[in-house]
Amino acid sequence: MPVSRSISCFLKAIHMKKRLAWANAHKDWTKDDWRRMVFSDETKVNVWGSDGVKYYWKRPDDKLRFHHLDLTVKGGGGSVMMWGCITYDGPGYACHIYDGTMKKEDHVHILDTTLMDTLNYYNYDPKTIYFQQDNDPKHTSKVKKSLV
After folding, report:
1. Is residue 87 scored above 90 in pLDDT?
2. 46 touches 77 (CB < 8 A)
């Protein structure tokens, strides 16, 4: 069966060092420490199909069959950008990013509403959580830093 190669971002030496340092800094964390961690990220969800490469098996002399086709819709079907978070106790609330691109003001609004709703749902104290994000510039803006 043919298998496509996985695509991975190249990690520079500095990235590897930072990841190892983060892992070493947290290796002795207790269950209670991890209970206070909240991870978040955005993602694109396709309404129809995948962006990835798809394969199928077919002998050279076989006719094209229905299951060999990759059915699509006109315009590609579109996609939706979403933000979400996950806690030790379960998934957080998710929200739709309306124009498909999150700006720093959108991120601040999401933290004020969706993240806080999640923390309230799990009875987390916002002052005691560890909030993990990917250091995208919109996540580290001065506007957002004033809230955290």
Report:
1. yes
2. yes
Task: Tell me the pTM.
Answer: 0.69
Contact 87, 38 (CB under 8 A): yes
Q: For residue 121, what is the domain's CATH number?
A: 3.30.420.10
Tokens coding 70:
């990759």
Q: What total number of domains does the chain contain? A: 1
Residue-wise pLDDT for 15-63, tens only, equals: 899 999 999 999 999 999 999 999 999 998 888 877 777 778 888 888 8
Residues sharing a CB contact under 8 Å with residue 73, sequence separation 6 or more, in sequence order: 48
Place of tokens 């995208």: 136
Query: pLDDT band for position 144 (50/70/90)?
Result: very low
Q: What are phi and psi of 116, to 5 degrees?
A: -65, -35
> Do 119 and 93 meet the contact criterion of CB atoms below 8 Å apart?
no
| Residue 124 in domain | yes
- Domain region containing 136: 34-145
Tokens (6 digits) for 51 = 């962006």
